[in-house]
Design a protein that fits this description.
Largest sheet: none
Oligomer: single chain
Radius of gyration: 22 Å
Shape: elongated
Number of strands: 0
Strand content: under 5%
Distance between the termini: 57 Å
Mean pLDDT: 84
């Protein structure tokens, strides 16, 4: 079944193009997520559940 499915991909250009697009997007999103300017936002978002509990009077 696997070889039958792979036999349908005779044009390797589409496969390489899709792989390249995936890798570029993956690397781009990873770099964007770990950028220095996002640190303040991530810290603020990480404190939100604690601040909500304090606001509601729960501990």
């Amino acid at each position: 079944m696997k070889s039958e499915a792979l036999s349908q991909f005779t044009d390797i250009h589409y496969t390489i193009t899709a792989l390249f697009i995936f890798l570029v997007l993956f690397v781009g999103l990873t770099l964007w997520a770990y950028r220095k300017s996002g640190k303040a936002l991530y810290e603020k978002m990480g404190e939100m559940p604690i601040l909500e509990d304090l606001k509601d009077g729960r501990q």
